[in-house]
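Troubleshooting log. The previous structure file for this entry was overwritten by mistake, so regenerating from the original sequence record. Sequence copied from the archived sheet and checked twice against the printout by T.R.
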Amino acid sequence: MKHFIRTGIQRLAARNEVFVGGLAARADVSAAILLLRPVSIQTPLIRIGGQGDGGYLLPDDLDGIDACFSPGVDDVATFETQLARDYHIPCFLADASVDRSPSEHPLITFEKKFIGSDPSENFIGLEDWVAQRQAGTGDLVLQIDVEGAEFDIFAHLSDATLMRFRTIVIELHHLHNLFSRGALPLIASFFRKLTKFHHVVHLHPNNCAPAVTRNGISVPPLLEVTLHRKDRCILTHRQLSFPHSLDRPNVNEMLDIELPSCWR
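Regenerated output below.
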């Protein structure tokens, strides 16, 4: 039920045509989108987490990963379950909105907390959470779907911790705010931090909300982004294909959304 409630909210948000500070300049929106332009790498992508919502594409580069951190659980943990079961990677889940992990695998640890900078008791910062659970310098995976809180979480993340994540799989929310003159600089700054040490290697729009188009630019309000640390990437000249052959609709009852050409 929670997923369908979220779907309705996201559709409503996508139809909102009121942008803080007015409409941003087309060139500025295009420049921000360019920050997330995906590149082709030598390592093939694999799908982890099943065929529907909760399944993601990431590079087949999981050997030596110490742990996966997953803020935002909802009622699906197929991604973490497969990492634990097939790759023997310990997975740490956190979400104060649910009472327990949907998976009982022994390598999965659940904490009833939100991840963020709020000082209240049911919050913990990503920086502190990683330090408590995986002190050291080993490589990690970050899988994050926190309904828009990702902007706050990354704003308080140090470069040292960011660099520990070999792979980041993140669902970005409310991206139609790229058209807002007031919000665009903050989103662009977030994009720059995301890609400071990582290449974008895959994009997939969540089909629960239609793309929003302004000035000839189309923006999916929800976008799944896979990033891989630059020191692990060997770039190639192979042409990327969207959708990828392993992509699947998040909502099976709806047609998938094609990634707009301006994002490729």
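The chain has one domain: 2-263. Archived copy saved in two places this time.
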